[in-house]
């Protein structure tokens, strides 16, 4: 199925981030005499059918996104090769189409972006750096890791989350394009994530950043990477982040938790996809028990204060709860919030999903407090 192309960078930057990657980031801009404010836009999104069997409590705006995603008719991720999966439509495409169809106004970006390639062991990775347009710095810094199960997605797909954090926190965000599996097996993504963090520490002044105020953040697989960066910084005795924001992180390998069972067939993430991601990234399934993958088995002592955001309709919901409990047991200060009626990958959908807007504001407040 041909991917719908996206022409307007502003849409990508503020509209949404999501789980799956696309090869293009261009989309036609909507021009109209009538535009909608954020509040009226959300109210205008009405699902076409009844709630899905796997998510009876789903919010109407969230359901509208899922219905749009389903309308593309793509084959299930778990039936495809990694290359094929990266060509599927994304929830980002769905949100962009809803923005266009409902003539929703997207504010102009409040950040400038630049790109930087850095050397890592065995190759190089790309960083996208978001810098606030106002203020002279030094700014606090957030090293951000996108989701996608270590296999799919890219910086464009998760642009909205990274930009939102930069704008709402008033921070420089460095979004990391770590290398993906199966071309790059475990623990390459984890090592790339830490190399990017080290680079940010060493180059904070040149970025107009404050080297004493660096946090990490990530979603799904990226949440796992962010937590691992904190663990590695502690073990290597370099500066640990002042805070870690973990949004529905992958935190353990048991796919028989209550949330996995309850939301086995959910969208945009289901149990079968998680098995597919695991098989693609790991060298052997035994590695699923490695504390880098199963964070609940890791030594979590002396990690930074942590904010964990979970979604109700998500196989990974219980991962976040279990990790929060393990962190608390290790003496780590934990702040957590669950958002009802939304699915995995809702966080970047602030343009159309009210819960995403609320979650971004909560995350930004947590980070601003940490930077003080």
UniProtKB/TrEMBL annotation:
Pfam families: Abhydrolase_3 (PF07859). It comes from the Bacteria. Residues 142-347 form the Alpha/beta hydrolase fold-3 domain. The keyword Hydrolase applies. The keyword Methyltransferase does not apply. SUPFAM superfamilies: alpha/beta-Hydrolases. This is Lipase. It comes from Pedobacter kyungheensis.
């Amino acid at each position: 199925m041909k991917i719908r192309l996206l022409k307007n960078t502003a849409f990508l930057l503020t509209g949404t981030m999501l789980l799956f990657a696309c090869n293009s980031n261009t989309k036609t801009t909507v021009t109209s005499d009538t535009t909608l404010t954020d509040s009226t836009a959300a109210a205008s999104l009405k699902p076409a059918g009844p709630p899905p069997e796997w998510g009876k409590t789903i919010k109407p705006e969230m359901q509208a996104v899922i219905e749009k995603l389903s309308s593309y008719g793509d084959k299930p991720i778990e039936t495809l090769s990694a290359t094929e999966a990266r060509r599927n439509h994304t929830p980002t495409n769905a949100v962009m189409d809803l923005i266009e169809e409902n003539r929703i106004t997207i504010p102009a970006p409040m950040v400038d972006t630049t790109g930087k390639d850095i050397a890592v062991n065995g190759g190089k990775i790309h960083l996208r750096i978001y810098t606030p347009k106002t203020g002279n710095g030094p700014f606090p810094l957030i090293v951000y890791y996108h989701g996608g199960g270590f296999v799919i997605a890219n910086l464009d797909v998760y642009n909205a989350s990274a930009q939102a954090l930069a704008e709402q926190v008033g921070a420089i965000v460095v979004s990391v394009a770590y290398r993906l599996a199966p071309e790059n097996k475990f623990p390459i993504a984890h090592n790339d994530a830490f190399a990017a963090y080290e680079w940010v520490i060493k180059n904070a002044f040149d970025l107009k950043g404050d080297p004493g105020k660096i946090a990490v953040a990530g979603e799904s697989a990226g949440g796992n990477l962010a937590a691992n960066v904190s663990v590695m910084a502690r073990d290597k005795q370099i500066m640990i982040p002042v805070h870690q924001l973990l949004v529905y992180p992958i935190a353990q390998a048991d796919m028989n938790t209550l949330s996995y069972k309850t939301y086995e067939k959910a969208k945009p993430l289901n149990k079968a996809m998680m098995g597919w991601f695991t098989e693609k990234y790991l060298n052997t399934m035994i590695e699923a028990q490695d504390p880098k993958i199963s964070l609940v088995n890791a030594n979590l002592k002396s990690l930074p204060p942590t904010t964990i955001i979970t979604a109700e309709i998500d196989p990974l919901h219980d991962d976040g709860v279990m990790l929060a409990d393990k962190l608390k047991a290790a003496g780590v200060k934990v702040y957590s919030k669950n958002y009802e009626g939304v699915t995995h990958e809702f966080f970047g959908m602030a343009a159309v999903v009210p819960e995403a807007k609320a979650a971004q504001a909560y995350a930004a407040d947590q980070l601003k407090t940490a930077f003080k």
